[in-house]
Amino acid sequence: MVRERVRRGVLAPAQETIEKLEKVVKDGNSYEAQQMYKSTAARFVSAQRFAEALDIFQSGASLQLKQGQVTCGAELAVLFVDTLVKGKFGCNEDMLDRIKKIYKEFPQVSLPQQVGVDEDMQKLSEALGAAKIRVEGCSSFLKAALRWSAEFGAPQTGSPELHDMLAEYIYSESPEMDMAKVSLHFVRGNHPEKFASTLVNFMGKCYPGEDDLAIARAVLMLERDALPLLRILRQNFKSSIEREPAFNELLDEIAERFYGVRRTSGLGMFGDLFKVMGGEGMA
């Protein structure tokens, strides 16, 4: 019925379309449903019936994610954000709540902690691959949402609520921990207590003697607007910094980029990092 109406150029009511496509997914035809979600919602977008297109994309993304179809769900989630942009929807509590509802459907799966025989290694490899897909899918969705929010009413760096979501998901799901990236998003979020608890948890996973460096990195990001605090931090953590020579370069980069302190060397390996911190963190 949906296909017949699409061929005739007649748009069925959005709710009717949603119900029919839900049945297709639940019958196990996720790929077929994916193409129908995209083509049908695109027709609503072409007709500038953006609110109905949003309903279709949100329903499809949530259902595909619930069914474990992360790649399909993430694609529809990104299309949901694309429609927010095309429809010029403002960043408000209602839209952020809809984004959050999709976000909560992204699976959270604990990775195996111990491996033994070859079969276990195979399972671990598969689990790591699945985790990478989850993180990439959720990150693509939330980064698109951050760009939309920055354009339509949120701060220049994007909605703090979205930054918190992305930080939490990367930390909890990523098989390759990037604490700098997690910290960057938490710093732009609204929940310092979550950031603090995450740091405490991360410190418990550090190699012995490296926990102070984890705190140093976080404080650098939080205090980057105060040169005196940077100098105090540099002095207080001198012994830690000396164990990681590249960290001195990072500190020089901070001093130059944010406080105008001249450096004695070139940009070095951290130049790209500060392009991200200066506004490309949503890309």
Topology:
Layout: H1 2-8, H2 14-26, H3 30-46, H4 50-66, H5 70-86, H6 93-103, H7 118-151, H8 160-173, H9 179-187, H10 192-203, H11 211-222, H12 227-236, H13 238-243, H14 246-259, H15 271-280
Helix pairs in contact: 2-3, 2-4, 3-4, 3-5, 4-5, 4-6, 5-7, 7-8, 8-9, 9-10, 9-11
Short key terms for the protein model shown above:
mainly alpha; 15 helices; 0% strand
Number of strands: 0
* DSSP strand content: under 5%
pLDDT below 50 for ≥5 consecutive residues: which ranges?
4-8, 266-277
Return the structural class.
Answer: mainly alpha
Q: What's the alpha carbon Rg, rounded to whole Å?
A: 22 Å
Distance between the termini: 40 Å
Tell me the number of helical segments per DSSP (H or I, 4 or more residues long): 15
Helix content: over 70%
Shape: globular
Mean pLDDT reading:
80
| Main sheet characteristics | none
Order of helices and strands: HHHHHHHHHHHHHHH
Describe the fold and architecture.
This protein is 72% helix and 0% strand. It contains 15 helices and no strands. The protein has helices spanning 2-8, 14-26, 30-46, 50-66, 70-86, 93-103, 118-151, 160-173, 179-187, 192-203, 211-222, 227-236, 238-243, 246-259, 271-280. The radius of gyration is 22 Å and the shape is globular. The longest helix is centred in the middle third of the chain and has 34 residues, at 118-151. It is an all-alpha fold and 283 residues long. α4 packs antiparallel against α5 and α9 (179-187) packs antiparallel against α10 (192-203).
